[in-house]
Amino acid sequence: MWSVVKSVLAALLGVQSNQKREEDFSSGRPAAYFVTGVVITLLFVLMLVFLAMFAAR
Amino acid sequence: MRSRWWLMAVSLAASGSQAQTNGWNMPVGVTDVSSDIYGLHMTIFWICVVIGLVVFGAMFYSLFRYRHSKGAKAAHFHEHTSVEVLWTAIPILILVGMAVPATATLKNMYDSSDAELDVMITGQQWRWRYEYLGEDVAFTSNMSTPRTQISGEETRGEHYLLEVDEPLVLPINRKVRFLMTSDDVIHSWWVPDLAVKQDTIPGFINENWVKINEPGIYRGQCAELCGIDHGFMPVVVHAVEEEEFDGWLAERKEAAEQEAMGVDREWAMDELVERGESVYQSICSSCHQAEGQGSPPAFPALANNEQLINDVDWHLDRVVNGVSGAAMPAFRSTLNPVEIAAVVTYTRNAWGNDTGDVVQPSAVAELIAQ
Ligand SMILES: [Cu+2]
């Protein structure tokens, strides 16, 4: 689980080591990556919305 | 407020003894917002300069130091995660660092609440109309550079294309809110020293505001291509001391009342012709030309125009209501009855249109009221 989250966060930043990438592709289910990706993106968007609301106060 | 101080400290440190307006940089301007914007601009400029120096410095140094002729060998490696994270994180921090003061300034720029004076600014092809809301004072502001200077028959004046017959007069030290719209196409009201550049859009009202710190004359232009005379609709703002402004406004109010009374009285022909000539030259001549000769087929001649000469009512109707679907604007709300009566009387008695007709302001007022 933590390894999936780490990979998704790395994708968000755009930096990933080749070793980790190969691990990801050889083990784990794709669905886990999709779902975690969507959830973290939503969280990121919510964080931006919250920040914007805070700045607009 | 804290971010404002931060911003000022950084920009002061960064810009040192920056020259004011030297033509190479944007002006510092005469409002708090304009100097904030200038400060932001300089801060970000210097950040870019430092980044450029570091990045290109490192690049040129490496190119020189590890050049092939000195036997340098390229390193072959695929990735270096920590360096990659570093050069991703640093720009993120820089961007967020710039966004904080920029957002604070933007918020301030758009906060037009608590204004002491409201001015409606309306763009028209090709002039500005200013209305002091709630004060019954309104006028149009036309470029006053003579056409002979534009065509090169006369030498250009000091404020060539940046001078008007009636400037917008504003008080210093008071927050003035602008409500901006347009009667025809999109224009943009732009005065660099006030850091205001706002589109005026037909059917929409945009808001902006200024609080000017120093008295003076500030010039600007229409900044949105709006037709053939786009270059000939300058903006001139006179910022004056508060008492002077109050005196001016009272004077203008009185003049407006006088004008309103002028509608009821009987006007003499030469009075109307004289007034009409100045209205014609400032408003109509851009399309119908100085001698009423027009420029057919786009703009019909008014001189020796049979239909016009034969039919007063038709003539008056064209000017009051315009021609829908054509470039002829309706002047019912932009000129007052005296001005309409004057310009119609003038055109009926100028350039060989010797009808001898006199159109009275009272008749025009009645027509508009219908
Ligand atoms: Cu314009």
From TrEMBL, chain B:
Domain Cytochrome oxidase subunit II copper A binding: 114-251
Entry EC number(s): 7.1.1.9
Membrane-spanning parts: 43-64, 85-104
Cofactor: how and how many bound: Binds a copper A center.
Keywords, alphabetical: Copper, Electron transport, Heme, Iron, Membrane, Metal-binding, Respiratory chain, Signal, Translocase, Transmembrane, Transmembrane helix, Transport
GO terms classed as biological process: ATP synthesis coupled electron transport
Annotated GO MF terms: copper ion binding; cytochrome-c oxidase activity; heme binding; oxidoreductase activity
Its job: Subunits I and II form the functional core of the enzyme complex. Electrons originating in cytochrome c are transferred via heme a and Cu(A) to the binuclear center formed by heme a3 and Cu(B).
Protein name (database record): Cytochrome c oxidase subunit 2
Lineage: Bacteria, Pseudomonadati, Pseudomonadota, Gammaproteobacteria, Oceanospirillales
